[in-house]
Amino acid sequence: MVVSMDFLRPASLAEALELKAANPDAVPIAGGTDVMVELNFDKRRPAALLDLGRVPELATWRAENGRVRLGATVPYTRIVDELGDVLPGLAMAARTVGSPQIRNRAGVGGNLGSASPAGDAHPPLLATGADVEVASTRGTRTVPIGEFFLGPKRSALAADELVTAVLVPVAAGPQQFAKVGTRNAMVIAVCSFGLALDTTRRTVGTGIGSAGPVPLRAAAAEDFAAEVLPWDEPAANTLTDDTAKEFGELVAAAARPIDDVRGSAAYRRHALAVLARRTLRWAWQDVSGR
Amino acid sequence: MTDEPAPESSAHTRRTVLKSTAAAAAGTVVASHHTSVASAETAHTGGARTRVTLSVNGERHRIAIEPRVTLLDALRDRLGLTGTKKGCDRGECGACTVLADGERIKSCLTLAVMRQGAEITTVEGLTRGDDLHPVQEAFIRHDAFQCGACTPGQIMSAVACIDEGHAGSEAEIREWMSGNLCRCAAYQNIVAAVADAAEEGRR
């Protein structure tokens, strides 16, 4: 059967938003590393594709007001190469995405647009309290990352809107990311965890991936760690085993995992407790190393 | 998979063949299908065949394809460049790796229409006359393959891996070649070949 598919190729953001408004069913495509799999296997037959690869406004990042405004199509390779200092947690997660070939094409906008609970960018964005910038011909708005995900592959994005950027606070302390998979490359995470310490405000941010219908924060774990971490004496040995263990257990308790082909709910909870414990220890070592 | 015809030697002949194939393909749908979505807007390409100019291995090719055709299928089925292999068609195996403006990408995960304006290099474009590329030479020296199906992708990935400066140690090579699978598990020799070619480049 021959199926027609329109291919829309805007050359500017304004044109992209007009095309999206006129064709709300059009599926945005940038790196293609997610959308193309569905097309190749005929899981999806969109009436139109909206190619964002030629929209220059989406392909840049800049620092503004203590945050990085990261364009939706900046590939992970550039995030690793250029943003490791200011967005270490996101850069660490970026380095685990797919493979070098995938990282040359894929970006954060696609991760958000797909809104998969397993997206590697989501835990660090949650841990740092990033905002998602979305735009349409009606205007531009920002959505706090914690309100962006509504369900598996469902987001706060309206049919006429595009993700244009994420606004990520510049790191104010050590950040970590860890994920569990069957190998280091080309895996969908069994579970993942992002951690961000703010040593100035003495707060702790968390993000849980692949262990719930949406990426989750572990608010109780954040409050606990912010309160009990010995901020005044940041030496590696001041983080007690009890604190690390309790933190891990609170993170595991915040997860809402299911059993699926990649792992059981029980395994995910167990692994998250371990990842949370470990990343807290690594991050605290970085605090004390300063 | 695509039902595109085999490549022809001249562009004129290819267009002629395409027309007849399009007519045959349209046999199952209403006759108006191929014209119904045509549009005059510059930013809009209809769902029917569209003209795409691809620059591959230094040569420009003008072909008429449907927007849904991947770069991989365009290379293999339309340009006859079958060195690039289709393994999984979902970005996992790396057999379809090519360079786009010097960067390695998976050609199954990009549409041909999206890569206009990029300079594509396939394994066919590595040789200089009769001389093999140093990475190709190294793969032969180290016997870095068994069945050979993944080899063009491995070699293209290795060329980029070395260019990126990610071939400094065995561990680094293993990490940065992780997007290319070898079902024969010739990894030991692949890593040795990449290390050797990188070393040769530094000499």
UniProtKB/TrEMBL annotation, chain B:
InterPro entries: 2Fe-2S-bd (IPR002888), 2Fe-2S-bd_dom_sf (IPR036884), 2Fe-2S_ferredoxin-like_sf (IPR036010), 2Fe-2S_ferredoxin-type (IPR001041), 2Fe2S_fd_BS (IPR006058), Aldehyde_Oxdr_Iron-Sulfur (IPR052914), Beta-grasp_dom_sf (IPR012675), TAT_signal (IPR006311)
Domain named 2Fe-2S ferredoxin-type: residues: 50-126
Gene3D superfamilies for this protein: 3.10.20.30, [2Fe-2S]-binding domain (1.10.150.120)
Keywords linked to the UniProt accession: Iron, Metal-binding, Oxidoreductase
PROSITE patterns reported in the protein's UniProt record: 2FE2S_FER_1, 2FE2S_FER_2, TAT
TM helices/strands, residue ranges: none
Name assigned to this protein: (2Fe-2S)-binding protein
Species this protein is from: Actinophytocola gossypii
Lineage, top ranks: Bacteria, Bacillati, Actinomycetota, Actinomycetes, Pseudonocardiales
